[in-house]
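Example 9 (inverse folding). The structure is encoded as follows.
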């Protein structure tokens, strides 16, 4: 399975590969403080090749199993963002979660929006999904703007939905129905 598409004059969206451990680790090290308020609390071990290698192996397994699709946003060989489909469920649901982040040096350039638009098209065209879901912290106005711009609608607030930055936090859930 391969996928690679230009999403701007600066960036390419492609699938994560087994060879990406070092560049993924470098991206998380560069963006440690930038992502800390929006991510689960990270142990020191998260910022090691060994743990990133294990996470990457799990994500490639999910890709093979059809339950998740990990993408990276790259500029030259540097990872400047990620966007992942997780929890892909078939049957009568045909739904997946989408999550993303953009490197601190590359925010404000339309990259999250361009990547999300591309993933929406991919989810319709290549996966035949019916629905995408995303959740944001209530104060993550930037991410909410990205989702609303991409046609996602708020479903409601899920209390204590995810443990982010060490605390179970309420999230605003969004969905986009793809088959309309
Ligand atoms: C949220 C995030 C993904 C936005 O990425 P980005 O590439 O800067 O987003 P875009 O450039 O596509 O912005 C789309 C729109 O949202 C607006 N926006 C983006 N970040 C914003 C912010 N922090 N506050 C207010 N508006 C914001 C942009 O101005 C733009 O609006 P416009 O189209 O009217 O000009 C990025 O800041 C990030 O990675 N943050 C940390 C991790 C995170 O929050 N991930 C999402 C978890 S749900």
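The amino acid assigned to each position is listed next.
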């Amino acid at each position: 399975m391969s996928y690679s598409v230009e999403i701007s004059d600066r960036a390419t969206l492609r699938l994560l590969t087994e060879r990406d451990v070092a560049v993924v680790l470098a991206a998380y090290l560069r963006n440690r403080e930038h992502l800390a308020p929006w991510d689960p609390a990270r142990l020191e071990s998260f910022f090691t090749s060994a743990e990133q290698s294990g996470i990457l192996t799990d994500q490639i397994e999910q890709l093979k199993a059809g339950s998740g699709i990990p993408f990276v946003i790259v500029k030259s060989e540097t990872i400047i963002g990620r966007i992942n489909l997780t929890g892909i469920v078939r049957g009568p649901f045909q739904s997946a979660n989408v999550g993303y982040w953009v490197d601190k040096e590359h925010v404000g350039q339309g990259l999250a929006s361009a990547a999300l638009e591309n993933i929406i098209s991919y989810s319709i065209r290549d996966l035949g999904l019916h629905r995408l879901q995303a959740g944001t912290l209530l104060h993550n106005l930037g991410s909410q703007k990205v989702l609303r711009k991409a046609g996602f609608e708020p479903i409601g607030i899920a209390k204590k939905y995810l443990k982010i930055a060490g605390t179970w936090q309420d999230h605003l859930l969004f969905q986009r129905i793809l088959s309309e």
